[in-house]
């Protein structure tokens, strides 16, 4: 899982990524959190919850790590594009449909999930998407991705 992004507005809530990881762990998956070296201190706590935080110091290390993954869940980010390009089934979390249409990872099997899609304006979607997107919705989208990939 990649819980960060280049800008704060593109990031789903950190607490929900952790909750997602715990739920996936409890379902028998081995969730791992991939973050930039300067972000590691903010995510060390996931190790205490039984989830891995690999130390990936360069993009080639990230690519090698991704290549061995079974699935990828992350925000709208370059790492999602890399996972998709490596043919890793990818679930990408986006704030707005228009952004997702233009920027979704689309080199392999993937799914996009929009938070707050029913809100009337782009400004509201950008502001509230991360609060309206539940862990349950992400789990449901992940299950659909898995079913479509199998």
Automatic annotation (TrEMBL):
Single GO molecular function: ADP-heptose-lipopolysaccharide heptosyltransferase activity
Assigned keywords, A-Z: Glycosyltransferase, Transferase
Entry-linked PANTHER family: ADP-HEPTOSE--LPS HEPTOSYLTRANSFERASE 2 (PTHR30160:SF7), TETRAACYLDISACCHARIDE 4'-KINASE-RELATED (PTHR30160)
Name the UniProt record assigns to this protein: Glycosyltransferase family 9 (Heptosyltransferase)
Biological processes, Gene Ontology terms: lipopolysaccharide core region biosynthetic process
Cellular component aspect of the GO annotation: cytosol
């Amino acid at each position: 899982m990649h819980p960060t992004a280049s800008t704060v507005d593109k990031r789903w809530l950190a607490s929900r990524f952790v909750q997602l990881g715990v739920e996936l762990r409890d379902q028998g998956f081995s969730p791992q959190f991939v973050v930039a070296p300067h972000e590691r201190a903010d995510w060390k706590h996931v190790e205490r919850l039984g989830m891995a935080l690999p130390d990936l110091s360069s993009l080639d290390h990230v690519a090698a790590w991704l290549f061995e993954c079974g699935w990828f869940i992350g925000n709208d980010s370059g790492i999602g594009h890399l996972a998709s390009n490596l043919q890793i089934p990818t679930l990408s979390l986006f704030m707005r449909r228009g952004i997702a249409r233009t920027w979704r990872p689309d080199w392999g099997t993937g799914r996009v999930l929009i938070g707050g899609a029913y809100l009337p304006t782009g400004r509201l979607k950008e502001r509230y998407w991360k609060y309206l997107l539940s862990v349950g919705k992400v789990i449901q989208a992940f299950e659909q991705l898995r079913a479509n990939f199998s």
